[in-house]
Specification:
The structure is a homodimer.
Chain A: E1 23-32, H1 45-58, E2 69-72, H2 78-86, E3 102-105, E4 111-115, E5 121-128, H3 132-149, E6 154-155, E7 159-160, E8 172-179, H4 181-185, H5 189-198, E9 201-204, E10 217-222, H6 230-258, H7 260-276, H8 282-297, H9 303-307, H10 312-322, H11 325-332, H12 338-352
Antiparallel strand pairs in A: 1-5, 1-8, 2-3, 3-4, 4-5, 6-7, 8-10, 9-10
Helix pairs in contact in A: 2-11, 7-8, 8-10
Chain lengths: 358, 358
Amino acid sequence: MFEEFLNNQDSWLNGRGPSAEIVFSSRIRLARNFDEYPFTSRAASQQREAILQKISGLYPKVRRLKKSLFISMEKVSDLDKQFLLERHLVSQEHISTLKGKGLIVSGDENVAIMVNEEDHLRMQVIMSGFNLEGCWEILDEIDDELSKMVSFAFGASLGYLTACPTNVGTGLRASCMLHLPALVLTKRINKILELLAKVSFTTRGLFGEGTQALGNFFQISNQVSLGLSERELIENLSGVVNQLVSQEIDARNTLLKKYKISTEDNVWRALGILRSSRLISTSEALNHLSLLSLGLDLGIIKGTCVFGSKQTRELLNSLFILIQPAHLQKIEGKALKEEERDYIRAAILREKLRDGRE
Amino acid sequence: MFEEFLNNQDSWLNGRGPSAEIVFSSRIRLARNFDEYPFTSRAASQQREAILQKISGLYPKVRRLKKSLFISMEKVSDLDKQFLLERHLVSQEHISTLKGKGLIVSGDENVAIMVNEEDHLRMQVIMSGFNLEGCWEILDEIDDELSKMVSFAFGASLGYLTACPTNVGTGLRASCMLHLPALVLTKRINKILELLAKVSFTTRGLFGEGTQALGNFFQISNQVSLGLSERELIENLSGVVNQLVSQEIDARNTLLKKYKISTEDNVWRALGILRSSRLISTSEALNHLSLLSLGLDLGIIKGTCVFGSKQTRELLNSLFILIQPAHLQKIEGKALKEEERDYIRAAILREKLRDGRE
């Protein structure tokens, strides 16, 4: 299952979007509930099944979703659940054992709808680079089309009703995954994260809570979705992301001006280890790939030296995901123990990052 | 001063001696005092000067020392003092500021006599590999020739008299510098060091006390020189060294059998870092060189891959010393701050260890 995703050239991982050297990806999701059923956590097993049935009949009528996959989560293997999580197509909560869960995912993986997660529908659009507008355009269209076919739970004063109060209103959460190695290396990041929390933005890591700073990735999202319009929420996040991008650029200039040699040392060591290790964990690999990515952005390492003539940004971005545990197992086509994964991860990295001159 | 030593092909660093893959070097020294003067620490300034004069007149008559350098330590710059220390030609004590100190050193650096260190004469022979017999043959000849010309302090019951009681008797200390990375990696080393201490052997690091385990080097020497003949002391040490060599070989086999992949990982990472770093400290470099050396011994890395067609053992052994702070400054011909040294050390290592295919 999902093997075709491994070679998906059009996915949000292609590294081709705007500002893709700092903004890894952009994502917007809407929480929606059918007004005729209780929220998922309060729905009986049969009701959850009915919700799943309902959306399975609706999605093929939505223009953007015509050719999407519809999957009952009960039929997904543990490995594939992890695989979907690594591709950011489902949440951790969605791969728990609760019955009646489903997933609708477009062939290019840009659109994914979780059915019976916390809300009946969690609809997301995820795109490469800094492209919240692009995400919203698609998501708004899908939401409009669905709204014409069904009645979503909506209160005149509150707006869309959701299982958790933080999502009430627009039901919208927008986020950007930012790669901020220079802010980490210059030790400016903590002050910035504190400031963001004060102005109601949430920071998470590459794979949600508890993974912060892994590979120097920070997912920034709005904390509340009430009291502002969808456009305003997106614009607010865009403003914050723009500021973070310029602060990261500033930190990168500082690295080049004040810490040139130690930055070169960090970058070249990262490449040296990626090219030579025989066992490497996901987190260590992510951190080295982050530094390698920084080195390419700063011109310390030439892309052709690392990847030959190929498109470096695209390949590098894909590596951040390819080396994840479930991805390795999908690539190998079998379950692997941790040490086996560390071995294969190292082999793949050596192969992908081998000397361009060879 | 001493620039010629940098290209000394015949020195004890050439890595060509017996068992040189584990026994880096062998050394024997004799402590001797002229009976007509008080021990150095009790001698007046004029007396120390007289001792220095006396040996300066004697050494050219000794066959092995005819072409040696005679140096007054007062005329040696701080950098050169450190350089001599790094080449194991003087002790830390000998480069303190006390006046009247001298050094006689043969052109191949195998023989070195410190004058007015703790004893009037500290005569050492140091050779590459496991070759205590070779050291003793030369040192015994020098001692014999000198004994015919002068009268050394000697007590009928105690033997040779020395400033410190631990040297009384033969005045002999024999030592071997062992490279024991596998005993360190398999965590067997501590038990072995405890055992050695119990049977009166002293363990130090590459540069004397306090440097233990740096680069996985251990200097093993006899603790007392009284009650046994020179031959017996040397044979005792040889026995211990032989045991350590076979334990290290056993540990290396264990690494290959039980920890093959993680050992390969350790070795290749070490080479990867040595080939890519832009700043590297002495101790980090020593530890990586140690692993690289192990990797060559175990056949994990082919010598031709690292050094082209050159003699790998010789080059690798020389690197352990070449990257030391004073050596770097001698090579560059000027004083260097710590960060400058780290930068040049990294550049030299990249150059020396560059891909053999290039």
